[in-house]
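Query form — protein Reverse transcriptase

QUESTION: What is the three-dimensional structure of this chain?
INPUT:
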Amino acid sequence: MVELTVPYESRMEEAHAFKEGKYLDMTKELKKDGYEARVMPVEIGARGFVGSSAYGLLSKLSIGGNKRTKALRLLAETAENSSRWIWSRRNERLLHKD
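ANSWER: The structure tokens for Reverse transcriptase are given below.
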């Protein structure tokens, strides 16, 4: 299971640990039921910093070389653009719960 989190860059390690713990019980249950299960938290910072967990995920998926470089760049750009979009619409009612 891959769990993507887009935290502030200063909280990436904390976010990684939180996501590992969040799914620990579920992973244990799946293993107990005979499944192979692994949680792979991945962090891409809100301003586009790609954590080492993303690099590790792509390596585990056998994505290397230029393809990995391109994927990491795309992940960074997407996170940054998405954060910019959310910020630019921060005052719109659509983004707020009533």
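ADDITIONAL NOTE: The mean pLDDT is 91.
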